[in-house]
Design a protein that fits this description.
Helix content is 30%, strand content 20%. It is of the alpha/beta class.
């Protein structure tokens, strides 16, 4: 059966070349890193069709591309910006080099609320905004002029810092974006290899302390669609065996030495009865894989090997019970 093609597009804007005294250093590297992380899934299949705007000069040009990004009915549209953010009496904005040169105008940048209007009016199913700039947390900020949330259904925003904070650069990257790329390369993957916006935020959040820059996550979705998939540590076929091994969710799985493949008279070490049985060895290898991704734990001993050799048992972790239910209900 032919795999359904899902249309996903990303616009990545990175600006280092601001007028003298305002230069940045990591923004071009940010969009290069992110392009690499987004363009392909872990199996090499196409993920996002990416357009980059390195060192773009004018707000008008950027706004035209943002409107193009969120036009139509794609499955997913992702907007990323790395550069200067600013707040004045007219609101928060992202800043292009020409905005700093034209000092005649009080309004200097591309206002976040104007970008939000384009996003909220879009028919794209999943709309993702990621900003690595100072004051990024102002994006999607609640407005008293509106009757409710500024986020329409299908919008997720991952922002480098709170509305009154600065975004840090470190080692040639934005600190936030470096973590974002690591998350997309597999750091934020769940046991099935899915990477969602929720998983990315959880990965990044753990890396920031309580006193410094704090990332912000805002969303109004009815489901977390995968941003990317990578090869899981344990195949989905192996994970699906969980309901065969554990008939009931709260049962222990009894082990004995017959499950350990090295417990064989052919091996040059001490062996005990019952000796290794092929069927049990196969089950135990699956259980060990599930243990490796946190779905199963041995009972009364820290190692699965000793659980088998000492005729103990293993049982599902809380995460294992979660995946047991998914398999049982045919949801994966």
């Amino acid at each position: 059966m032919t795999k359904k093609y899902i249309m996903k597009k990303a616009l990545l804007i990175g600006i280092n070349a601001y007028p003298s005294g305002n230069e940045l250093h990591g923004c071009i590297e940010d969009i290069n890193c992110l392009e690499k992380a987004l363009a392909r899934n872990g199996d090499g299949s196409l993920n996002f069709q990416v357009k980059k705007m390195p060192n773009v000069q004018s707000s008008g040009e950027v706004m035209d591309k943002i409107r193009e990004l969120f036009n139509g009915s794609s499955d997913t549209a992702l907007l990323y910006f790395s550069g200067h953010g600013y707040v004045n009496d007219t609101g928060a904005e992202i800043v292009m080099p020409d905005d700093l040169r034209d000092v005649r105008q009080y309004y200097k940048g591309l206002q976040m609320k104007d970008i939000m209007d384009v996003v909220n009016q879009s028919y794209v199913r999943n709309k993702i905004i990621i900003f690595d700039c100072c004051h990024a947390g102002n994006m999607g900020k609640y407005s008293i002029a509106n009757s409710g949330s500024d986020l329409t259904t299908g919008v997720s925003m991952l922002l480098a810092c709170r509305e009154d904070e600065s975004a840090e650069e470190m080692g040639g990257h934005g600190l936030f974006t470096e973590l974002l790329c690591n998350a997309l390369e597999g750091g934020a993957a769940d046991p099935t290899g899915y990477i969602t916006m929720g998983g990315i935020y959880a990965y990044i959040d753990r890396s920031f302390g309580a006193w410094g820059q704090r990332p912000v996550f805002k969303t109004n979705v009815t489901e977390f669609a995968p941003v990317k998939t990578v090869k899981p540590e344990v195949s989905l076929d192996e994970i699906k065996k969980i309901t065969d091994l554990f008939t009931n969710i709260n049962d222990d799985f009894a082990l004995d030495p017959s499950f350990e493949f090295t417990n064989d008279p052919k091996e040059e070490h001490k062996v005990v009865e019952p000796y290794a049985i092929v069927e049990n060895v196969a089950k135990f290898k699956t259980l060990q894989k599930l243990h490796g991704i946190g779905l199963v734990n041995p009972v009364g001993t820290p190692h699965m090997y000793f659980a088998a050799m000492n005729s103990k048992s293993c049982r599902l972790t809380e995460l294992g019970k979660y995946f047991w239910r998914l398999v049982k209900d045919n949801k994966i």
